[in-house]
Design brief:
- Helix content is 56%, strand content 15%.
- The chain is of the alpha+beta class.
- Strands 1-2-4-3 form a four-stranded antiparallel beta sheet.
- The longest helix is centred in the middle third of the chain and has 40 residues, at 107-146.
- Mean pLDDT is 78; it is low at 235-246.
Length: 246
């Protein structure tokens, strides 16, 4: 009786050269991989060398897809760390004993990628500078809305050479234009109308208006604004703004 002899385990070298796409997509790495594979037993693969080669291709391609062409040395380290130890391919009954990977990037690709990187960095810096200027403009606009005198002081400190007597009038007009576009512009117009008409009235008329406004504010529970109004206009007569809360 003859027994079927089990064929000896096969082994062979891994030696392949290929390219792998980088994270940029337009550039590719040149890869050379060498190593050793070993057949581990049944079921035997018809082409164990191809199975080992596909394993190397897949692993390096996965790593390259998230690596910039400018980081080819990093890709080489990562690929060797991954493939430098045995890996069993269960579906093929093949073990990839070890693989050494060498990665190269073409000089023209490196120059092109470095140029693009500089342009992107320049564009990012320009965008950040523009955003900073916009933020400064918004801050200055808000300052004009709240207190034009502070905006004038800021302008004087930052650019004293450009500050002239005409600047005061110009800034005042700008402040009025900005305020007219601010939220609550109706109140801005009301305050402007009161300011324009109030100063030309006789003293007793001014006193009468202040008293009325103060009383109305108190009636509606706005005690703090009434007291502020009284302080600003120095209402000192007895009974002024001394209404009762209702």
């Amino acid at each position: 009786m003859f027994r079927r002899r089990t064929p000896p385990a096969r082994s062979g070298p891994v030696d392949l050269a290929f390219t792998a796409a980088s994270a940029e997509g337009g550039y590719r790495f040149d890869v050379h991989a060498t190593g050793q594979w070993l057949e581990t037993g049944a079921p035997f693969h018809q082409n164990p060398a191809a199975a080992a080669a596909c394993h190397v291709l897949d692993r390096v391609t996965e790593l390259a897809a998230v690596c910039s062409v400018l980081s080819h040395a990093e890709l080489e380290y990562r690929a060797n760390a991954l493939l430098g130890q045995p890996a069993d391919l269960a579906s093929a009954s093949v073990r990839v004993q070890w693989v050494a990977v060498h990665v190269h990037a073409r000089p023209e690709d490196l120059i092109d990628a470095q140029t693009h990187e500089r342009l992107r960095a320049k564009a990012r810096a320009a965008q950040e500078e523009q955003q900073l200027r916009v933020a400064q403009y918004v801050g200055f606009r808000d300052l004009l809305r709240e207190d034009p005198t502070i905006a004038l002081a800021q302008l004087l400190l930052e650019n004293p050479a450009a500050f002239t007597p005409q600047t005061v009038n110009t800034m005042g007009e700008i402040a009025r234009q900005v305020a007219s576009h601010a939220p609550g512009a109706a109140w801005v117009e009301t305050a402007r109308l009161l300011e324009k008409s109030f100063g030309g009235l006789p003293a007793d008329a001014q006193q009468f208006i202040v008293d009325r406004l103060c009383t109305v504010l108190m009636e509606f529970g706005a005690k703090a604004p009434a007291e502020r109004l009284r302080t600003v206009h120095r209402v000192t007569e007895a009974g002024d703004c001394e209404g009762t809360d209702t």
